[in-house]
User: Fold these one by one.
Assistant:
Number 1:
Amino acid sequence: MKQFKLNGPVLALVLAAACLAACASPGRPEMMTITQPANVAAQGAPGYKAFKLGPVNGGGKTNAMWMSNVSGEDFQTALEGSLRAANYLADDPAQAKGEIKANMVSLDRPMAGLDLSVTTSVKYTVAYDGAPPVFDELVAAVGKAKFSEAFVAVERLRLANEASVRENITAFIDRLQSALAK
């Protein structure tokens, strides 16, 4: 029987492949977007296609050697797609009657674990032009990823991040609809 030996270059290649397999990847906007929200503004309802998306701040870039994160750009893309699906964004931003602003205050992630829970906190402000805010609240939501969903921890953390942002946007849309109905 022939024996296989790991020489320096082969060993380095194997170790590099193992490291790359465990590299953190950022949250994916398409996995954070609510494409079919439970609460959708109907034509004629308060807020129906009335807003433009203003500044969206917060979030951070993912360091591949550390842990998954959600960038501000990816959060903005997910929020915009979700608000559009819920009929809150005007087709033409110039025709909007108000503005929605968001600031991701925190993305609380665990350092380790089998089943991971991530909490996203976002401060949302919604106001019609020239009027006081109709919604000005911090929304926090938890997203989870189980060990059975991904064996590699960095992958599980990315899934939990995405679930947390998705849950946060869902909670915001639900609470916005209630605030606009008052």
Number 2:
Amino acid sequence: MKYIHYGHKAFSLNDFIDVSNEEYRNKPKGGLWASPIDSKYGWKQWCEDEQFRECNDENSFIFELKPEAKIYQINCKEDILKLQKIEYAMMRSNIYPDFEQIKESGIDAIQFNLSNDNEGTFDDSMYFALYGWDCDSLLVLNKHIIKTV
């Protein structure tokens, strides 16, 4: 699968900032954010809908993940709730994922497939379960699994 990141023309290992938890937030500092190139509702679409910023292809890059990458897929609210129960992805509380622990457990990336919730129709149960992840997203936790195209 191919992903697109807007805001930089190329990926640089040296510029990658390791993830760190932020208090009272569902998103960490650092990592690399992207959307699947063929996503039904990715970052570019969200920015257009919200008039947030312009996503230019000239200021973006496309990449894949290496075949050995371990990706935690979130396709429904139940996948979010499993983060509370599975041993390798503890939650800092009942609300906020522990992104540092998730990375340490061997998970390389988290893919949030909002478009898949409720069989492709928008269902706010998944949206509010991981509030702030507003579109189909990939959060890369491990910079070494990125393969530029």
